[in-house]
Amino acid sequence: MRIRLEKRARLIESGREPYPVKPERTHSLAQIRAAFPGLEPDEATGTRVSVVGRVVFIRNTGKLAFATLQEGDGTRLQVMLSLAVVGEEQLADWKALVDLGDHVQVQGEVVSSRRGELSVMAESWAMASKALRPLPTLHAGVNEETRVRQRYVDLMVREEARSMVRTRAAITRSLRETLHANDYIEVETPIVQLVHGGATARPFETHLNAFDQKMTLRIALELYLKRAVVGGIDRVYEIGRIFRNEGVDSTHSPEFTMLESYEAYTDQFGMAERMKEMILNCADVLGMRTIETPQGTIDLDGEWKWLGVYPGLSEVLGQDITPETGAAVLARIADERGVSVDPAWDAEKLVLELFSELVEPTLIQPTFVYDYPPSAQPLARPHRSNPRLIEAWDLIIGGMERGTAFSELIDPVIQRERLTEQSRRAAAGDEEAMQLDEDFLRALEYGAPPMGGIGLGIDRLVMLFTNTGIRESILFPLLKPEAG
Question: Which of the residues 5, 32, 70, 108 has an alpha carbon 20 to 30 A from that of 25?
Answer without folding.
Answer: 5
